[in-house]
Amino acid sequence: MSFRRRLFVAAVTGLSLAGSMTVVASPANAASKYGSCGSGWLARGRTPINNSSNSTDKLVGYVYWYVKSYPHSPSRVCVITRPLAKYTNVNHIMRASVKLYKSKSAVEVERSARYYVGPVTEAITDRYWVLGLIKVGGHVYSGVKWNLHS
After folding, report:
1. How far is residue 60's CA from residue 108's CA, in Å, rounded to a whole number?
2. Are 59 and 82 in contact (CB under 8 A)?
3. pLDDT tens digit string along 82-120?
């Protein structure tokens, strides 16, 4: 093998090794203290979690929902509830929920957490609603978005 050929093979091998040692998680797949539905989910919206429909009332967080479509099966919705940063200093009781209009029950998760609760996923076969609750002090704040569809 000629000197040039050996140099080329060594350079290519070195570059491929260097490339394989660098592993960077993409933001969609990265483990996060703010929760994630994973890759391939489209952000569909967020609604404020506060103590009424008046936008000047105390805002404590948001409920986010994402949709993922599949070619031969129903789309899915994913819901995550997140408090504002100023409320992440201690754990709060939080809930993330999704309910189909024709269903008698909701799919939800409720737990004490600092940064987020969820993800909650459900197959979308009808219109649906999403709900987020955060208990701060002795008050329960809610955010709900009705009449959603994929």
Report:
1. 20
2. no
3. 999 999 999 999 999 999 998 888 999 999 999 999 999
